[in-house]
What does this fold into?
Amino acid sequence: MFRLGEKQKLVITKETGFGVYLSEREGDEKRVLLPAKQVPEGAGTGDEMEVFLYRDSKDRPIATTKEPRLTLGGLAALKVLETGDIGAFLDWGLEKDLFLPYKEMTRKLEPGDEILVTLYLDKSSRLCASMRGLYDLLSKDSPYQREEEVSARIYEFSGNFGTFAAVDDRYSAMIPLFEDCSHLKIGDVIKARVAGVKPDGKLDLTIRKQAYLQIDDDAEAVLKALDSYAGVLPFNDKASPEVIKRELKMSKNAFKRAVGRLYKERKIEITEKSIRKL
It folds into this structure.
């Protein structure tokens, strides 16, 4: 049985001037063409070959010896070549570009964007890309440990959990909700630091500096917030994490460290319900 979107070993059962036909075994009537330019020198009837199966521009099954950048159920970062009203076309290293339907897109794309996608068969048995459902496909056995710097690609934003990223386009990771990722978009590749490794192997990432380096920036952010409130914040360091995140785009712990620094420097005073700039 031919398996579109996968690599499989087939046997050459017929030779022609424009290529060879491959089947699962000699005598099978079901055949797929491997174009002549893809046939290795010296290959002939009865030889076994490993090929990748997809559909050509006329929607016919065809074989190739080229290595696709993405196979069925896998993950890969592919470049956007063209966009339109019905979707986008991606470069996956084969003669025919890979179609990404509009309904499988999670943001508007532009040519040149590079995004993480998976490959699936639609209801018409066509190979298509999707930007959805990536979370369960990412690996949880990364080699990284706490405090190591990693490269991660953004693939989803969640209002309940945070920003989901794929380290090395492979490993499952997340930036917590309290960190400000509003400047990022899906497809962006960032440098981040491993803040922790969960028991199941997923990575917690941070795009903030280490606490002793970040505190200067956070203290400056608190002062700017005070200025925007005419010198008086309508809450203090006992405010809820949600309020702090909304107003200052930082965690409660980071806020308390920054406020403590400013208090020691006598730049603010803390009251029962507010923080006042001195």
In short: The mean pLDDT is 91. The first strand starts at residue 7 and ends at 16. The chain has three helices and 18 strands.
